[in-house]
Amino acid sequence: MIDPVIASRLQFAVTTIVHIIFPVMSMGLAPFLIYFTWKEIRTGEQVYEQLRTFWTKIFAISFVVGTVTGIVLEFEFGTNFAAFSTTAGELFGGPLAIEGMMAFMLEATFLGIFVFGRDRVGDVLYMISAVAVGLGTWLSAVWILIANSWMQTPRGYELATENGQPIVTLVDPIAAYANPRFPWMFVHMQNAAVLSVALFLTGTAAYFVWTNRDTEFWRKTMKIGLAVLLVTAPFQAIHGDAYGRHVADTQPQKFAAMEAQYETDSTVALKLLAVPTSLEDITDPHADDLFVVEIPFVASLLASGGDPGATITGLNDMDAERPPVAIVFWAFRAMVGLGTWFIVLAFWGGYRWLQGTLFEDDRLAIAFVGSSVLGIFTVELGWIVTEVGRQPWVIQDVMKTHAGVSPGLSGPEALTTLAGFVGVYTALLVLYWYVVVRLIREDAPTAPPSSNREPTVPEEVVPSDD
Amino acid sequence: MTNGSLATVPLALAEGPLLGLPLDRLWFGLVFAVFGTFLFLDGFDFGVGALFATRRTDAEREQLLAAIGPFWDGNEVWLVVFGGMLFAVFPEAYAVLFSRHYLLMFAILGALIVRGLAPEMYEQRHDETWQRWWGRAFVAGSVASPFFLGVFAGNWLFGVESAASAASLLVGLAVVALTVADGAAYLGLKTRGDVRLETRPLGHLAQIAYLLLAVAALLVGSRSSPYVAIGSAPTLGLLGLTVLLAVVHVIAGRAGRHYLAFVAVAGQVYALVALVATLLFPLIDPASGLRIEAAVVSTLALNLTTIGATVLLPLVVTYFVVLYSAFSGPVDEGDNYA
């Protein structure tokens, strides 16, 4: 008999891990679509119309799958985590309700105009729709991350007990919702989304460049993607480093798990590269046992914000219940490693661009193709660090995750829905991948690159039978 | 125990409800009004999906998809807003209702996933097998979604603890019939030609089925549930209003007054939701005896959510006006989804 607590946690993990892919695509594509629409309206160049039309198709399918998987998440708080919902509803439900009204509505209604209305509405309303859709996707993230950051660093509440049930009451909305964690999470998440989509655009375009089927459309895609990558990839590292310091201050246990730091120590070195020397190091890493390439004092320096001799408290000196260190430690290392690779890739591409040989370097093209979905994979790793790293707490220092699960839930019920979600969400992923690849292969413009900037290509005049 | 900074509590908002209004009861009404808006708007999407099964030619099927294409995403968000509002204002009711009807909630979610994916997938490939299967998925999801939602509403109303009762199954069927009537009335407005002519009698049939099923559900439900008093004046008034609107729907439909027919169906959706709210009142969850004023959040949280909704809901209505005006008028044969 499976424990309903374990099944509920696994189910939430499966549904969030799959769901997050689609908002990342929407949030990341939104600024590109606004730019394409703006350029299309301003310049009338055919390539921007092609870019807007094509990437809107990818956006639309991502939005639909994001919607259906997102409704599931909202409802799961009630179905599987009823005790959490009762305890924290007063603080946690508000941002969700505002998200629906302020953000999701804006996005969903104007998406109707943006996807279906190019010939129906004027340029001004069309441009407004593009911005409204983009604003909607980003505002959604604002409210979801306000709710999440409150769980990470809860403030502005009072805790009382009613009929044996802990109840959180809102006493200071500014402290609760203008939470110190929120700006860190928001900037890190939004930049990650744009970075991930820039990698996807560049990687897709590089495939056509590499296979000698590049067109003006794909060249433009690759250059725009690379330009955005050159800004977002380094920024993510700079910002992520400062975010790590904030985590060390506010969630020391998560920070210690990220570093596999068991013993309290001063003058701690930063582990640039950690290599397991035995199987046990993989499943149960301890910083002291790994083969590491490290910079002395830097972890202490970073965690304290300037003191190389600062003490970092180890896991052994904290709460006996601790997050699964192996998952947090390796997910964090993989995230940082991939982030570093994206910076290398961006600079390599930028260098070739400067040389004027961006489309001639096959190895660069292959590297971009191979990295096209790694951005989204890295976002997953980041969320694993964030969410697994705060365990055993669902609300840091207030409520343990196992205490938040619905009290009446039976093992067989939870197992049934878990199995259902594993099946349905696997099918969803396969289907989404199939549709996106098919769109890229069959719906992307295939006209040869034209040196002529005027929209004069005669075959476009042929009426389509759509 | 307190935590964090208490520097700037907006004391006035914590002291009493805004303008001294009975906010808990107003929110009880608002939550149901939002659910009614979802059932009305996405209801015609469901109905169009069910009627999709009766269309045989590609052109007519495309016409049906084009009729709801720009709208259904926005319509469905009302369900998300309903869930969010219930969570924000009555978290305990949200928690007990959703966890008690555990498998049913996932049936609703599964049906909505299939229904949401199907139109988008249908357009991805223009080969026969692909479109046949996604067409079937569209019909199945469009019938199953209102059915399971109706069963959920029935369980809620009649205080059913287990998976379902006869009365809540009847509510499920009644809601399916109502959405088909809604969908046919919508197609009366949004299409011309054969589609409009042939779906109208199906809508009228669904209208009659709805009245019979709704009355049967109430009779069976009131016998099993001590909470449901169908003899009261508001209940009888809403039932009478429903019958009147049903007559208006059929007569206006036959006279070609499509807008009036559509409004008559919309009115019945709101009447149904008002009936459920009236029968529940003053409880929000009969199964646990939970009362509205016991389930509501603290004054400060309630005031803040009220301010948010007062600012945002009129904006949302504006978006819908913009969207529906941009795509006003009927879609023709030859129009398609994408």
TrEMBL record, chain A:
Keyword Membrane: yes
Residue ranges of the region described as Disordered: 445-466
Membrane topology summary: Multi-pass membrane protein
Keyword NADP part of the UniProt annotation: no
Location of this chain's protein in the cell: Cell membrane
Coiled-coil features, chain-numbered ranges: none
Residues annotated as transmembrane: 12-38, 58-77, 97-117, 124-146, 192-210, 222-239, 327-351, 363-385, 414-435
GO biological process: aerobic electron transport chain
Keywords per UniProt: Cell membrane, Electron transport, Heme, Iron, Membrane, Metal-binding, Transmembrane, Transmembrane helix, Transport
InterPro entries tied to this protein: Cyt-d_ubiquinol_oxidase_su_1 (IPR002585)
Chief location: membrane
UniProt GO cellular component terms: cytochrome complex; plasma membrane
UniProt-recorded Gene Ontology molecular function terms: electron transfer activity; heme binding; metal ion binding; oxidoreductase activity, acting on diphenols and related substances as donors, oxygen as acceptor
Protein name: Cytochrome D oxidase subunit I
Species for this entry: Natrinema saccharevitans
Automatic annotation (TrEMBL), chain B:
TM segment ranges: 30-52, 64-90, 102-118, 138-158, 164-189, 201-221, 227-252, 259-284, 304-327
Cellular compartment(s): Cell membrane
Domain of life: Archaea
A molecular function GO annotation: electron transfer activity
PANTHER family the record matches: CYTOCHROME BD2 SUBUNIT II (PTHR43141:SF4)
Record organism: Natrinema saccharevitans
Keywords per UniProt: Cell membrane, Membrane, Transmembrane, Transmembrane helix
Annotated GO biological process: aerobic electron transport chain
Protein name (record): Cytochrome D ubiquinol oxidase subunit II
Signal peptide: none
GO cellular component, one term: plasma membrane
Keyword hit for Transmembrane helix: yes
